[in-house]
User: Which sequence fits this backbone?
């Protein structure tokens, strides 16, 4: 089953295969003869007590004295220590006093979560001129005192201009520093004079299934700005295809994430941002399946966007196309060009080679290559298994910086 994700379209309903659930029958534990005898004695005693109470009420017997005698008799049975009783349920208190850690997290991180308006233009036939309109709204997180704001790429995609709405509802202009569609991350910047709070970034590698998390953002737009939802981490490293060929390792949570939450913060109980909320599964009958991009995945992307206005992903230095066998099945990726000076050229790869595997993983699409490289950085060495002249051979290739494919060399 291929899950589809709802970024900004609440009514999007993809098809899915129905899941049938079976209600398990109650499992009954066999009772011993001893248990039945014990139960009979207790039942008889209770019946005698009830009849006694009836007669005492009728004949005016002192009930208080009788109650003390009954309590003494019941205590002699030591019912509290009986193996036939149900286990004691303990209540775990998550808060202290009149507030919980959710309150503390909301107060600490909430002011650093902002609204984002994606603005474009539309032609007004009445005035015969173009006017600025808001074409989309989302959330963002202020991550530095100098005004950097991280959000999702799909929140600002196609924008002619962007504004940021601070927690006090003040709307200020923002500059798009850089965007990255593959990771769905964008970096904006506002004037540092508007920064009143900064969200601390945590370590998403330490996130565990079952720990409590808080999602903060603006579901359905600015009308519900600063909405706080609470839940747990349902899964970590959930690799799902976001629709661009790259499988991003996501944090899954049941904290409510709705359209407009995109770009907001997923925060741990210490008040640290551990993820950027990005998507939810939206289909009939599905609830509590939201996803956030782990902050450790986001950090290097932010650094690249700050320095280069784009993300410098590692490359092999080749152009490829799918290679089919006689039955019409894809058996690998055909190398149509090797770029001079790249890791591929230095390793000895040639045009006409067929890539079968990279790092031991079968490769049949360009997306397969992208997915593998997304787990590497520039300078890493990968192993590529090549089919050449009917024989296979492994090559060690050092990944390099992006290649200018517009050259004719």
Assistant:
């Amino acid at each position: 089953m291929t899950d589809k994700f709802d970024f900004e379209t609440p009514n999007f309903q993809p098809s899915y295969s129905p899941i049938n659930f079976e209600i398990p029958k109650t499992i009954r534990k066999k009772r011993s003869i001893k248990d039945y005898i014990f139960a009979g004695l207790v039942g008889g005693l209770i019946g005698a007590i009830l009849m006694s109470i009836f007669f005492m009420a009728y004949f005016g017997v002192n009930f208080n004295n009788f109650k003390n005698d009954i309590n003494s008799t019941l205590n002699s049975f030591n019912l509290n220590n009986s193996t036939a009783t149900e286990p004691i349920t303990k209540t775990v208190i998550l808060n202290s006093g009149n507030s919980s850690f959710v309150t503390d997290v909301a107060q600490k991180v909430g002011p650093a979560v902002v609204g984002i308006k994606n603005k474009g233009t539309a032609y007004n036939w009445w005035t015969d001129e173009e006017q600025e309109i808001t074409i989309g709204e989302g959330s963002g997180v202020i991550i530095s005192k100098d005004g950097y704001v991280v959000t999702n790429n799909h929140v600002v995609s196609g924008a002619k201009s962007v504004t940021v709405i601070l927690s006090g509802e003040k709307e200020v202009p923002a500059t798009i520093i850089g965007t990255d569609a593959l990771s769905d991350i964008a970096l904006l910047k506002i004037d540092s004079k508007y920064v009143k709070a900064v969200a601390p970034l945590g370590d998403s590698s330490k996130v565990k299934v079952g720990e409590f998390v808080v999602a903060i953002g603006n579901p359905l737009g600015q009308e519900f700005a600063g909405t706080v939802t609470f839940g747990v981490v349902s899964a970590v490293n959930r690799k799902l295809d976001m629709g661009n060929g790259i499988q991003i390792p996501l944090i899954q949570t049941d904290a409510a994430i709705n359209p407009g939450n995109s770009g907001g913060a997923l925060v741990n109980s210490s008040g640290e941002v551990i993820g950027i909320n990005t998507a939810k599964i939206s289909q009939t009958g599905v609830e509590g399946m939201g996803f956030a991009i782990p902050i450790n995945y986001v950090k290097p992307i932010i650094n690249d966007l700050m320095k280069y206005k784009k993300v410098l992903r590692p490359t092999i230095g080749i152009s490829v196309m799918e290679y089919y066998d006689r039955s019409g099945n894809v058996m690998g990726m055909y190398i149509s060009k090797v770029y001079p000076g790249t890791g591929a050229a230095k390793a000895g790869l040639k045009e006409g080679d067929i890539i079968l595997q990279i790092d031991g993983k079968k490769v049949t699409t360009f997306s397969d290559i992208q997915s593998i490289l997304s787990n590497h950085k520039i300078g890493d060495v990968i192993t590529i298994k090549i089919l050449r002249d009917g024989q296979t051979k492994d090559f060690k290739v050092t990944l390099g910086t992006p290649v200018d494919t517009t050259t004719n060399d």
